[in-house]
Specification:
This protein is mainly β and 294 residues long. The chain folds into two domains: 2-25 and 190-292, Immunoglobulins (Immunoglobulin-like), CATH 2.60.40; 48-186, Jelly Rolls (Sandwich). The protein has one helix and 23 strands. The chain is elongated.
Length: 294
């Protein structure tokens, strides 16, 4: 497969250039824009196990993600080791009723950890993250009381009997976070999706989801968007979303379980350019959306 993708690089008439390096595969969902704070949340899309969610917590906001819990007994979610924020984690069922929450990790620290001890079984759930002290409410009041802090708890507030409706606005901290998960899977599948985060020149992250598991993907670069059609080889007739200018194969990535992320340093001449993923899986070959290098 890698030889085929290398041929794509020859077909477009340019040499392979290593603009990205340090590939780090994994089953990661990267927040797209600003995740909603209420149902239906932001659906995590991919294939197989979901082991990490990366995002940015804005001041006076909460992020809500739709996930699948495949193994309730093995489920866990934690921000310990994934952020410097004083976080809170909340889990809701498919109808928005509270399941479990934690403010401070029972093992110590200001980050959070929840487990499957109160999860009734596998299925669709919504995982929320907020900064202390931004708490979820229903029409009847707070779903969880504000304390105790370092104990994982089922809903125990005056609003425990009703679904999520709103959040208070006292979580003023902001910053990046990672939530590490076990026993979870992506909530849905989608077409091959590409997201770029970071600064150029400098380090950027190329995240993908919706790929066929365990396949090789080529990362293509061009200076402009367009509709270049590959003229021959295994992807003959595939129309790209890229133009001809500077078109090249950057690198080849392993799709892992269908989602992942590559990190690398990008030089100044690539800033403002465009990337697209291509998978040699048929004729025409599958391609992702086009994303601009920041």
């Amino acid at each position: 497969m890698r030889n085929y993708i290398a041929r794509v690089g020859v077909i477009v008439g340019v040499a392979t250039a290593a603009l990205l390096g340090g590939v780090a595969n994994g089953q990661i969902w990267t927040e797209s824009g600003d995740a909603p704070d209420l149902l239906p949340g932001q659906e995590t899309q991919g294939s197989g196990a979901l082991t990490q969610i990366d995002g940015f917590h804005a001041a006076n906001d909460a992020d809500l993600y739709k996930i699948t819990i495949a193994d309730a007994g093995a489920f866990s979610a934690t921000t310990t080791g994934g952020t410097s924020l004083d976080t809170q984690l909340f889990l809701f069922d498919s109808n928005g009723f509270g399941v479990t929450s934690d403010d401070d990790d029972p093992n110590g620290g200001l980050q959070s950890r929840i487990t499957g001890q109160f999860v009734p079984g596998p299925g669709t759930y919504y995982l929320a993250i907020s900064a202390y002290n931004m708490d979820p409410s229903s029409s009847s009041g707070l779903i969880w009381n504000s304390s105790p802090f370092n104990v994982e708890r089922q809903p125990d507030g005056p609003g425990a009997g009703d679904p999520l409706e709103s959040w208070n606005s006292s979580g003023s901290s902001e910053g990046e976070y990672s939530i590490f998960l076990t026993g979870a899977e992506f909530a849905g599948t989608a077409g091959l999706d590409l997201i770029i985060n970071g600064e150029c020149p400098g380090n950027i992250f190329v995240s993908w989801s919706g790929a066929a598991p365990n396949t090789d993907m080529g990362v293509l670069f061009a200076y402009n968007e367009g509709s270049y059609t590959i003229p021959g080889g295994p992807c003959s007739g595939t129309e790209l979303g890229l133009g001809r200018g500077g078109l090249r194969l950057v690198t080849v990535l392993d799709s892992g379980n269908g989602s992942g992320r590559a990190e690398g340093r990008v030089v100044a001449c690539a800033c403002g350019g465009f990337l697209q993923l291509i998978v040699v899986d048929g004729n025409p070959c599958s391609t992702s959306n086009v994303a601009q290098v920041p």
